[in-house]
Amino acid sequence: MSSADIAVATPADSPESRKYNRIHRWLGIADFGLGLALLIVLLATGWNAQLRDLAYRAAFQNYVLALTLYVLMLLVISKVLGFGLDYYGFRLEHRFHLSNLKLGAWLKDEAKGFLVGFVLAAVVVDLLYFIIRQFPLHWWLFAWAVFLGLVVLMAQLAPVILFPIFYKFEPLQNEELKARLVKLGERAGTRVRGVYKWNLSEKSKKANAALTGLGSTRRIILADTLLDNYSPDEIEAVLAHELGHHVHRHIPKSIAVQAAITFVGFWGANWILHYSMERLHLFETLSDFANLPLLILGATVLSFLLMPLLNAFSRYNERQADQYAFRSIPGVAPFISSMNKLADQNLAERVPSRFVEWFFHSHPAISHRVEAARAWGRTRPAAPTAAATEPR
Ligand SMILES: [Zn+2]
To answer: What is the pLDDT of residues 61-110, one digit of tens each?
Structure first.
């Protein structure tokens, strides 16, 4: 890419990309609305209590087994109701030529996702009600501490246990890229523990990269769809961005933010449960798990209200990681071209509306990221080493 290319304005979004993103967004909203409606219907009709009685009968009155069955029933109902939307989402990716996933493989992934979700939910919920029964007075404080421990544990285990259920990973073999990464790490005064090739192409045509894990499982993962189609300079720019997340400690910071939010969340859950018992007389005891839909409803509403705030926090982190990348690579041209390639490949909206970016986007719009790179490039011309990439 020549320096002249950098001056070219951000291309406008194609009607195709606008359409894809619009449908994708509405699909998310419909899915959210359906979940919300289900919870409200369960609570308003009293089916939440009927399902509890059914679970007790099927579990021969054993509390833990009944609770686990209750979780399973809620998940099955929600899956059956939402399956149409899920299938529409699968078709949507194909319609816009973004998917390599066959129907059979998709169904297998759906089944795997459901099982993983059930196991995780059953563990969390059984633990929660165990704590409620053991410490009825200060359960929310204990539950918060245990939940936080689980979040840290999951952050650590996800790259080695959870992600491999759905994708194959292997250590990056490319020596040139590895050497570049070591250099980036040295400049940052840190050591990256691992870079892995993420076999995304068997499922998707989209490209992606991420920093994942915590402590000894911390690693950068790069999709093969990126490794195969981007120049070494572009991949270096992506690596530098991911390294920026590490240097700025974004994963521990996100966990700290989650800790603060869930503290308020669990306190609020306690308040809601007591209010529903003492004022509304909906339940007789705290440990009556027919109140689970009410807890989920509270968590859903809270996370919806906090979404713009959390997305703003995430966009702030992304900008910081971008700035880090600008500082660590010789010139910003490969960063800009990688952004444009990503936008094309993923059919991302370069210029979403202000509202859409503010409410929905965890990353700044591509146009803003490119603008920031250009601004950086204007104040700091490419270092001499970048001259090698310029045409003579
Ligand atoms: Zn990022």
So the answer is: 999 999 999 999 999 999 999 999 999 999 999 999 999 999 999 999 99
* Angle (nearest 5°) at CA 136 between 132 and 137: 135
Dump pLDDT digits (tens) for 210-241.
999 988 888 999 999 999 999 999 999 999 99
Phi, psi of 12 (to 5 degrees): -70, 160
Residue list, CB under 5 A from ion ligand 1: 318, 321
Going by their DSSP bridges, the two strands 209-212 and 219-223 should be labelled as antiparallel
Which residue in this structure is represented by tokens 């009709």? 45
Cα(7) to centroid(ligand 1), Å? 24
Lowest-pLDDT range of 9-23, 47-61, 237-251, 267-281? 9-23
User: What's the token pair of residue 216?
Assistant: 């000894």
Distance between Cα 178 and ligand 1 center (Å): 20
Q: Output phi, psi for 331, to 5 deg.
A: -150, 160
Cα of 206 vs centre of ligand 1, distance in Å, is 16
342/151 Cα distance (integer angstroms): 30
